[in-house]
Amino acid sequence: xxxxxxxxxxxxxxxxxxxxxxxxxxxxxxxxxxxxxxxxxxxxxxxxxxxxxxxxxxxxxxxxxxxxxxxxxxxxxxxxxxxxxxxxxxxxxxxxxxxxxxxxxxxxxxxxxxxxxxxxxxxxxxxxxxxxxxxxxxxxxxxxxxxxxxxxxxxxxxxxxxxxxxxxxxxxxxxxxxxxxxxxxxxxxxxxxxxxxxxxxxxxxxxxxxxxxxxxxxxxxxxxxxxxxxxxxxxxxxxxxxxxxxxxxxxxxxxxxxxxxxxxxxxxxxxxxxxxxxxxxxxxxxxxxxxxxxxxxxxxxxxxxxxxxxxxxxxxxxxxxxxxxxxxxxxxxxxxxxxxxxxxxxxxxxxxxxxxxxxxxxxxxxxxxxxxxxxxxxxxxxxxxxxxxxxxxxxxxxxxxxxxxxxxxxxxxxxxxxxxxxxxxxxxxxxxxxxxxxxxxxxxxxxxxxxxxxxxxxxxxxxxxxxxxxxxxxxxxxxxxxxxxxxxxxxxxxxxxxxxxxxxxxxxx
Length: 509
Ligand SMILES: Cc1cc2nc3c(=O)[nH]c(=O)nc-3n(C[C@H](O)[C@H](O)[C@H](O)COP(=O)(O)OP(=O)(O)OC[C@H]3O[C@@H](n4cnc5c(N)ncnc54)[C@H](O)[C@@H]3O)c2cc1C
Ligand code: SF4
Description:
Elements: E1 4-7, E2 27-32, H1 35-39, E3 43-44, H2 45-64, E4 68-72, H3 83-93, E5 98-102, H4 107-119, E6 123-127, H5 138-142, H6 151-161, E7 166-167, E8 170-171, H7 203-210, E9 216-217, H8 231-249, H9 269-273, H10 279-291, H11 299-323, H12 351-363, H13 368-382, H14 386-396, H15 402-413, H16 430-436, H17 457-468, H18 470-473, H19 480-488, H20 492-504
Parallel strand pairs: 1-2, 1-5, 2-4, 3-9, 5-6
Antiparallel strand pairs: 7-8
Helix pairs in contact: 6-11, 8-10, 8-11, 10-11, 11-15, 12-13, 13-17, 14-15, 17-20
Flavin-adenine dinucleotide (FAD) is lined by residues 265-269, 272-273, 308-309, 312-313, 316, 367-368, 371-372, 376, 393, 397, 399-400, 404-405, 408-409, 412-413.
């Protein structure tokens, strides 16, 4: 057999890949901690630690299973930090005759590996990563000729195709979607559960990362690192979710609270995005657990969760491959403003933002509604350039990889794609944030006021957004009502002046 070099990227930690079915001395697996990955954006320190720790444990696991791995640590003197050179070096040293890699999920890596392969003097081959439910191009074919890609149609197709929550050809309990039941604010603190954490001392790796001055954001206690970084730990987080959190997942999916950073969310995004867990195994385990606990857990909790994974997650990946690279340049509203400085410190008087940003800096985590309706909502209302918003989201979250970050940020949250992912922009005044939780009760601003010293900035910025984008939005059938309300309002000038004043001093809000 020809000697083969197989590259495993840091987010391809899939132990069940068919590559690993056979042990073979002639196959060398190559893994490398690279500055190109730590530096393409400024990442949260916990994200860098989580990826390196998980890569190292994955490499150990492969070796325990009898595979040959060549692993370049970030501080190895032999690590030239040049992917092409590293590949060439391994080809030479091991007398490799064939190079193989799994299709990367990010466009920039896809381009880079194509370019490297075109320069190799040996044969090369890309194989599927065997992680997603669909192939890269599936969604583009599914929506061929359509301007808007309706997630719900894609999601139903996945349910049928993989027989998830189905009763023959019909959805279980007669409905595809229980979203209407999943919008409560959390009123009772006692329902909350502690997260399943995996404390470890990562001081040694932390020091290694500090030495070459890799620039990072956020905070970490190196003696008390909490994220799962092995498949076993990820499976424990999944079990814990089924046993403790699923029961309320749907109910409080959209809740906002100062009481707890995670609520009933699963904290499984990093486990899946690094491929330590597969989306299908997560969804099947949750469905199975629910089947044996139907008396206690309603279908709305389970359907809500499953939709996020085989619906949104899979769909976002399809949109990414259908629309890149142009997607990365879209700026439908022509927004130009810079992100306010407090996005890097959390120091703002607005409680919803100080809480959401503060916990993001502490934990590299915020749940979906914090990302969408607090930080994302503010950025859109304030007219921040989508590049600025993308860079921030891509850096700060433990789960942020471009294929799922950019479609969520530029698409769902900033509507910079003009309506490919969403049918209307996700914006709100303070009303929504107040309705969903207790942030406004602890805020220096008043959620009820639109003008005046204490007026909540979301209120005037909301109308400023609609007013300045009238031409682009008025004809959208889902938005007409907002313009009818605006037209009837008496104090338009004061509201717009208030918004302008807030935008002038955006760094001091
Ligand atoms: C502006 C913005 C940026 C985002 N950036 C990312 C990102 O970089 N990486 C990322 O994985 N998710 C991203 N999301 C989606 C979502 O917020 C996170 O997946 C979720 O908060 C992760 O926490 P969890 O695992 O506890 O999720 P749960 O609430 O427990 O949900 C379960 C799983 O569903 C999936 N999921 C849920 N919502 C989405 C969604 N909208 N798109 C894709 N998958 C989804 C995730 O895999 C998640 O682990 C973003 C959302 C917004 C609005
Ligand atoms: S009053 Fe406004 S700024 Fe304060 S928490 Fe509520 S929505 Fe946020």
